[in-house]
Amino acid sequence: MQAPASSQENPTPRDGASIALFKDRKVLLVRRKHAPFAGLWSLPGGKAEGRETPRETACRELMEETGIESEIAGIVERVTVAAEAGGTGRRLTVFYGRPTGGSLRAGGDADAAEWVHLDDVEALSMTPGTIELIWIAAHRVRMS
Prior knowledge:
By secondary structure, this protein is of the alpha+beta class. Strands 1, 2, 3, 4, 5, 6 and 7 form a seven-stranded mixed β-sheet that branches. The protein starts with 13 loop residues before the first strand and ends with a helix.
């Protein structure tokens, strides 16, 4: 009989948030600097700090990683992101919205931040599930 997995083998996912931000048929993407998924493109986002709400987390992470401020229009989806080997997964609330200010620059956990035309997103190496979230968010932002 096999012993149950310890909490270190299957750590509890941490809460976090990300945001799909759109302007002029472009989505704001970041290239991840650190594991998990270093070198892959993704939506700006990360883990919650302290007692932050998901909305506060999304706005803070967006500013840290891209220098851009936003207006959140709604929620795309709540997803669980599996971690790479040895890491902790994350429960993410994925928002969508439009920029309201700031100046684009990569920072925090991002080594690049770019507005990418929607026609070009599928050619990028992305974190798992990101392309699908972008298309859902693009549809919703167009409807709002």
